[in-house]
C-alpha cells in the first residue's frame, strides 16, 4: 500500500486514493479488492497508451454471449481484471460483460464484483475515449459463489462503484457511498491523486447526449422530448440545447459528472429481443450510484435504476441520467410516475 500524501508532477501536495479510502474508513478487504481493480486498470491504461505498438487494436474472430464481436482490447482487459481479481482473497465471484456466466472466486471472499472491462469498444481503433466500469457488492452468505443469484442485488446495495476513463489523462471516478470523487493517475508515480472531491452535478443543463440515429425506433413520447430539445428557443422549452455523443457511456457520463447534462439510451424497437442496449449490472447500476452520489438522478423509463430488481446477469435497461431537473422534465414527457 502507498503512503498517504505525495507531490504530483505540478509540485502540489495531494491526497492519494488509498489515503482517501482510509479517511472514508473503508474496510481493509474492500480496499484490497480496489487495489486489484486499480492495478488492472493501470495495466490497461499502459496498453491503451501504447496502442498499435502494444498490439491491442483490432477485432478477434469471437463474439461474446451477447452476440457482439470482441475486440482484442475487450479480451485483454477482461483477462487482466479477471486474473488480478481472482488472485484477491476477498473476491467471492466476478461477473463480466465478456464472460457468459459468473466466475467463482474464493469461497470465503466477502465481496462480489461486476464489470465492463472495456466500455466504448467502437472507440478503441479510433483513439477515442474508452474506460472500465465496476460495481461491488457484499457476497451473500447462503448463495454459492458461482450462483448468478449472488448478483441479483439491487443497485442500492452496492458497496462501491466506479469507472476508470482512459482519456487524455487516466481518471478514476469512485464512490463508496460518501460522495463521488475523481482521481487522476500520475503516470510518473503510478498513483491516483484526488483531483475533484464531492463532485456536484448542476441541477439544470443545456446539453444532452443520445444516439439520434435511433430516433425512428423510440417511443413517440421520447421523440417528442428530444424534438423539443432540438427546437430550442423556438419550441416550448424556450432555450437552446447543445448535443454531444461519445459512443462510450464512460465518456458521456464523465462529461455529465464534470459539467452537467442529460445522457439517454432509451428503449427502442429495433430488435424485439433487445428492447434496450445498456446492461444493468455493470453499466447502468454503477453509473447510477455515481450520479446520485453527485446529486444527479438516474432512472429507466419507469423507476429509479438503483431500485430495479435484477433478474439476469446480462439484462439490459433503458437509461436516463444526469442533471436532476432535466431528468425530471424528460420523465414528465414520457409519462413516468415519479
Ligand atoms: P461496450 O463497448 O461495453 O459494448 O458498450 C458500448 C455502449 C456504451 O458505452 C455506449 O453508450 C453505447 O454502447 C454506444 O452505442 P451506439 O453504438 O448506439 O452509439
Ligand atoms: Mn459498455
Ligand atoms: Mn465493454
How would you explain this protein's 3D organization?
The protein has 338 residues and is an alpha+beta fold. It folds into 2 domains: 10-196, Fructose-1,6-Bisphosphatase, subunit A, domain 1 (Fructose-1,6-Bisphosphatase, Chain A, domain 1); 207-334, D-Maltodextrin-Binding Protein, domain 2, CATH 3.40.190. Helices cover 27% and strands 25% of the residues. It has an 8-stranded mixed β-sheet with strand order 6-5-7-8-9-10-11-12, with helices on both faces. A hairpin with a 5-residue loop joins β3 (59-63) and β4. α2 runs antiparallel to α3 (72-86) and α5 runs parallel beside α6 (280-292). The chain is globular, with a radius of gyration of 19 Å. The chain binds 2,5-anhydro-1,6-di-O-phosphono-D-glucitol and manganese (II) ion (MN) (2 copies). 2,5-anhydro-1,6-di-O-phosphono-D-glucitol binds at residues 68, 97, 116, 119-121, 211, 247-249, 265, 277. The site of 2,5-anhydro-1,6-di-O-phosphono-D-glucitol (AHG) has 12 residues, from β7.
Sheet with most strands: strand arrangement: 6-5-7-8-9-10-11-12
Radius of gyration: 19 Å
Overall, the morphology is globular
* Order of helix and strand elements from N to C terminus: EEHHEEHEEEEEEEEEHEHEEHEEEH
List the bound ligands.
Answer: 2,5-anhydro-1,6-di-O-phosphono-D-glucitol, manganese (II) ion
What percent of residues adopt helix (DSSP H or I)?
25-40%
